[in-house]
TrEMBL record:
This is DUF4910 domain-containing protein. InterPro entries: M28_fam, PA_dom_sf, Peptidase_M28. The keyword Coiled coil applies. GO terms for molecular function: metalloexopeptidase activity. It comes from Pyrococcus horikoshii. It holds the Pfam family Peptidase_M28. The keyword Coiled coil applies. Transmembrane segments: none annotated. Keywords: Coiled coil. Residues 483-540 form a coiled coil. Residues 225-407 form the Peptidase M28 domain. One of its GO terms (biological process) is proteolysis.
Length: 558
């Protein structure tokens, strides 16, 4: 193990930071030209390092699909401004003033804050100010005759929040009014003025809606398959340093170090726009060549400035693999810089491993039977705001995650077969032991053995064994279950499913994992496995969601 940790010391977080600074100069909104330019910057860095790459580009056109996701429009911000009293905000303050994918428009009128449903009755001819559920509220603003739409997010202080509309060409049939975002401090000022006699604002938004724009997919490979694939989404607004210039920049440094170090596996590197890019990538490659995925998202959060913890999101039980076990082992080794009163190692920064959660591109790989794991720093008090700037990042955090990921790749590629098997068995026992300490488990062990069997097939090991059962579900339209995509097929089903999954975010996680489990197990065992993994789940709501997906022909019983 120590030889791989020593080799990982070549990882230089200052290299990552320099690339973060460069990437964060681009306003990397999906459908914009800047996201293409940011990806071209990464390609230029790969050329400097002598690493071969190719573009597998797709398109944004507002009407095609990236598997289950409707493509947003091609879109560019030109300029925008908001004026009231003696104050003026412009896109020179932050491009986030103009909400991503907003139409052009000018308006002047009274601001009406929306706190309750009945407030919409006063929206006609006014400029509405909304603090939650922005995409649905934007539709309501158009329907109720508002002149313009202003959004804010609680907890952002003086920073501009990032809120994207992700409009399609079909949405442009009703989406007509300009949309802006303001810092919470400005929103509070507008709210106070509206209570004391009212406040009038003047809005101007100039944007370009294009017929199409490039959806960049940058793919580099080192060695021969099977590949351990490292991914990072390169989208999000300027500056977007932690989210996710940090992951995109770390991939460059990983490629530099891992070049020439392949063994029983090769290494692949993927820069994509979040979700849309990954789902566009899936049909373009041979998935049988990909062993597993390590997705790097927000890997530079600071414990003091951002209040971040290093999280390791494990693979779902349905896609069990030794990879999160190896990464967890090295994260703890690299992070052990302090000492207890007797000299035992203590963590340098906060770290915790978690069962599978959704929220980034590892999801898509898991859906397609490729185990995906994600190190991430969370929470981040600057998340999705104009304050997510490079100086907030932690070189220590970048170093801990980067060195651990390098060591993981080298260990899986080059460690002796017996050592890899030992670690695989140890992680399997640890994982099952953790579950057993919390609850009685019934099905988990068979899925762990199935995952180890898959590891063995790719890595030439002798651990685990395949499941003897068959699944009961065929997932026909595989990918993120998109409420928006479903609305275009059947508004009634979309509305009912939205009510279920938006009640609690974990219901959505459990629903997707239940589908993955149902590809392997019968109905009863799949639900038992879900409970083994998460404990109590809202079974009735999950099964209602499954019924709706069957009604929508997204899945079908086998």
């Amino acid at each position: 193990m120590k030889e791989f940790l020593k080799a990982a010391d070549k990882f230089n977080p200052e290299n990552v930071f320099r690339d973060v600074v460069e990437i964060s100069k681009f306003h990397r909104i999906q459908g914009s030209r800047d996201i293409v330019k940011a990806t071209e910057y990464v390609a230029s860095r790969l050329e400097e390092l002598g690493i071969d790459y190719k573009f597998l580009n797709d398109i944004y056109d507002g009407k095609s699909y990236h598997l289950t996701l409707p493509s947003p429009i091609g879109w560019e911000i030109v300029e925008g401004s908001l004026k009231f009293k003696e104050k003026e905000l412009t896109t020179s303050n932050s491009p986030l003033l103009v909400m991503a994918h907003s139409p052009s428009g000018e308006a002047k009128g009274e601001v009406i804050p929306i706190f309750r449903e009945e407030d919409w009755e006063k929206a006609d001819g006014k400029i509405v100010l909304v603090g939650e559920d922005w995409r649905e509220a934007y539709r309501k603003a158009n329907e109720h005759g508002a002149k313009a739409f202003i959004a804010y997010r609680k907890g952002t202080g003086d920073a501009f929040p990032y809120i994207g509309l992700f409009l399609t060409k079909k949405d442009l049939e009703w989406a007509k009014i300009p949309a802006l975002t303001v810092p919470e401090s400005v929103a509070n000022e507008l709210i106070e003025k509206s209570k004391k006699g009212g406040v009038e604002v003047e809005v101007s938004v100039k944007t370009e809606i294009k017929d199409r724009e490039t959806l960049p997919l940058l793919y580099a490979k080192i060695g021969e398959p099977p590949y351990l694939l490292f991914s990072a989404h390169i989208c999000h607004p300027k500056p977007g340093a932690n989210d996710n210039a940090s992951g995109s920049a770390m991939l460059i440094e990983l490629a530099r170090i891992l070049k020439g170090n392949e063994g029983r596996i090769g290494f692949a590197f993927l820069w994509i726009p979040e979700y849309h890019g990954t789902q566009a990538f899936i049909p373009k490659v041979n998935l049988n060549e990909i062993y597993a995925n390590i997705n790097l998202d927000m890997v530079g959060g600071s414990e003091d400035r951002s209040n971040s913890t290093i999280m390791l999101v494990r693979t779902p039980l349905s896609r069990f693999s030794l990879v999160p076990g190896v990464l967890e082992l090295f994260l703890k080794e690299v992070n052990a810089e302090g000492k207890s009163f007797s000299g035992s190692p203590l963590p340098s920064v906060k770290f915790k491993e978690y069962p599978y959660e959704m929220g980034s591109d590892h999801d898509i790989f898991n859906f397609y039977s490729i185990p995906g794991v994600m190190p991430i720093t969370w929470p981040d008090r600057y998340y999705h705001t104009s304050a997510d700037t490079p100086e907030k990042l932690s070189l220590r955090t970048l170093s801990i995650i980067g060195r651990a990921v390098v060591a993981t790749g080298l260990f899986i590629a080059k460690a002796e077969k017996e050592e890899v098997e030992r670690v695989a068995r140890g992680f399997a026992m640890k994982y099952l032991g953790e579950l057993s300490m919390q609850r009685k488990i019934e099905v988990a062990e068979s899925l762990v053995m199935n995952g180890l069997s898959r590891d063995s097939g790719f890595l030439g090991l002798n651990v685990g064994h395949e499941l003897e059962s068959n699944g009961w579900v065929k997932w026909k339209e595989k990918g993120i279950i998109s409420i928006k995509g479903l609305e275009y097929k059947n508004e009634s089903i979309a509305r009912r499913l939205k009510e279920i999954v938006e009640e609690d975010r974990m219901i959505n996680v459990h629903l997707h994992e239940y589908l993955m489990l149902s590809e392997l197990l019968d109905n009863e065992k799949a639900m038992k496995a879900l409970k083994d993994e998460y404990g109590e789940v809202k079974e009735e709501k999950i099964m209602r969601g499954v019924e709706l997906l069957e009604e929508a022909k997204i899945i079908e019983p086998m």
